[in-house]
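In this supplementary section we document a worked example of the pipeline. Step one takes a protein sequence of length 102 as its only input; no multiple sequence alignment statistics are reported here. Step two produces a three-dimensional model, which step three serialises into structure tokens for compact storage. The input and output of this example are shown verbatim.
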Amino acid sequence: MSQEGTGGRRNDDDVEMINTDQITTEIITGRTDMLYSSEMVDNLCNEKVQKAKRVADKAIEEIEASRKEQVDQINQLRAELVNAINEANNKINKVYEELKKY
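The serialised model returned by step three reads:
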């Protein structure tokens, strides 16, 4: 049968087999001149995983440094507040003792 069936479409007799793996690779990579092996894919994926791990580790370090700084600031403020309360209590006690004398 001819390729020009009704309406310019192919007839059922004109079946063309295509390699979908090759087409998929060509679509994804835009290249038809390079073959990919599972080893290459594994290596690329491992590199990307390692890069993501390094980025995550760096982010964790930054978060930990920020947390440590916040904890240090909180502890400093706590110490100042405790000292201020103790000093205020000492003054109150002195005034109270003087008031008891009258």
